[in-house]
Design a protein that fits this description.
mainly alpha; 2 helices
Length: 80
């Protein structure tokens, strides 16, 4: 009788243990995915703020060249 009970209890304990481990693993994956998503959103916000605040050197050169050419065009028109 005791062997029969043990033959049911041991696999039952193993089954419950496996189910708990699976549940915890899925919860960890879900939490990790959520953290990764939040990090990606934060990174995008930081990059957007940096790009909105600072102008790159190449853009500055292009703006200066465009402004200089416009001023030169105005000077040429005035001289004619």
């Amino acid at each position: 009788m005791e062997e029969w009970i043990l033959s049911l209890i041991v696999p039952g304990i193993a089954l419950v243990s496996g189910l708990i481990a699976t549940y915890v693993s899925l919860q960890n994956r879900a939490l990790l995915a959520e953290v990764r998503q939040e990090l990606a959103e934060l990174e995008n916000r930081i990059i957007t703020r940096i790009n909105g605040t600072y102008v790159r050197a190449g853009e500055c050169r292009l703006r200066e060249e465009a402004l200089a050419s416009r001023v030169q065009m105005m000077v040429d028109r005035r001289e004619k």
